[in-house]
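FIELD: query
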Amino acid sequence: MTGFYKVLELIKWHFDNDPIVNTTTEGDIFEVDLNKQTIFPLVHLMTNNVSFETNVVRYNLSLIAMDVVNISKEATTDLFKGNSNEQDVLNTQLAVLNRWYDMMLHGNLWDLEFVVDGNPTCEPFTERFENFMAGWTMTFDVLIPNEMTICETNNYEPFCPSATVINTNGTYTASVQSGATLTLPNTTLNLQIDGTQVATSTFATLSNQLINLVWQ
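FIELD: result
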């Protein structure tokens, strides 16, 4: 089962290719060295919980999109905007998350069976670590196919019996474990004229083939 890896890889792939994002991290946010201004703008992923549902796995995730706020040393002249670019940071980081959401709905992530369920919520924040930062925390659910099956092991043979494959005249039989894949052997066609073999051709079994016979 590789579903968790798939979630991590798809999220990292998306934000690594976002022109606004400089760094993508995962896990405990306090283990990230937030003192380094060179890592910003930054998107951080946290997995809140996972639940197993019929045929799908539901991941409840939080994405934190943040950047450093620059504070001017000049006197404040605009009481609405203040003396920093905090509003600009919040606007840009919200756009980063909005693009991610749109990609989940309509873009490549949808094509990769990475489906958002419900409407995400975005909560703004301003935090003063070593750097003064601002951004948004977006929490959402995604669904991916549940790839787990108990039939991947012989221990469950009573519940997942092997299948027998046989052709109509009984000249070919094979047994395949439940959940496994059976690759059919190629089919060889021999052309004989008056008991003399004149041609041999091999094709993938069950494929459509066109054979041209030219009489000289």
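FIELD: remark
The chain has two domains: 3-145, 150-203.
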